[in-house]
């Protein structure tokens, strides 16, 4: 059973585009449906979630707080090492982890995760070995698709649906 979800940001939780205003402020776009499923995971099911991302952004920190994500690691080069530390802290094993990422900096982490995903527009290097290649693109429901897959596989689908009806 999956106890921890691990999320990349750019290209996974977002479409990978980074926009700057004329004042230098960064703009990212997050999918509401992704967020709804993550919030059910963390708040209704009291399960763990982590964001491990290569870039740093105050917007990501805000989004993590909104969704109840307990582990936020930004500016990370070796994602699998950070995840190993989270597993030790939480007393979990790799087979209890589901992770999603879209590019080569996610490679080692996805190789080790018990259940691995990449968005439809993820690099082919990941598509060759992940458990699930999502039909949706990053920032366009790929994380929601991952979450629904986990809810079904772990027998939580009815509870997920009932969380909102």
Largest sheet descriptor: 6 strands, parallel
Strand order of the largest sheet: 5-4-1-6-7-8
CATH class label? Alpha Beta
> What would you say the CATH architecture is?
3-Layer(aba) Sandwich
Radius of gyration: 15 Å
CATH homologous superfamily label: HAD superfamily/HAD-like
Q: Count the strands? A: 8
What fold name stands as the CATH topology? Rossmann fold
- Backbone structural class: alpha/beta
Shape: globular
Question: How do you describe this structure in short?
Answer:
38% of the residues lie in helices and 16% in strands. With 165 residues, the protein is α/β, with parallel strands linked by helices. It has one domain: HAD superfamily/HAD-like (Rossmann fold, 3-Layer(aba) Sandwich), CATH 3.40.50.
């Amino acid at each position: 059973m999956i106890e921890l979800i691990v999320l990349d940001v750019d290209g996974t939780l977002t479409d990978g585009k980074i926009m700057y205003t004329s004042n230098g402020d960064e703009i990212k776009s997050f999918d509401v449906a992704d967020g709804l499923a993550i919030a059910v995971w963390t708040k209704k099911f009291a399960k763990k979630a982590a964001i491990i991302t290569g870039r740093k952004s105050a917007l990501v920190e805000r989004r993590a707080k909104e969704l109840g994500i307990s582990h936020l690691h930004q500016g990370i080069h070796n994602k699998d090492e950070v995840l190993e530390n989270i597993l030790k802290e939480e007393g979990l094993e790799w087979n209890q982890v589901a992770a999603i990422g879209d590019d080569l900096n996610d490679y080692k982490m996805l190789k080790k995760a018990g259940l691995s995903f990449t968005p439809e527009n993820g690099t082919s290097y990941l598509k060759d070995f992940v458990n699930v290649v999502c039909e949706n693109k990053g920032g366009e429901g790929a994380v929601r698709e991952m979450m629904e897959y986990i809810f079904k596989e772990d027998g939580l689908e009815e509870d997920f649906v009932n969380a909102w009806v």
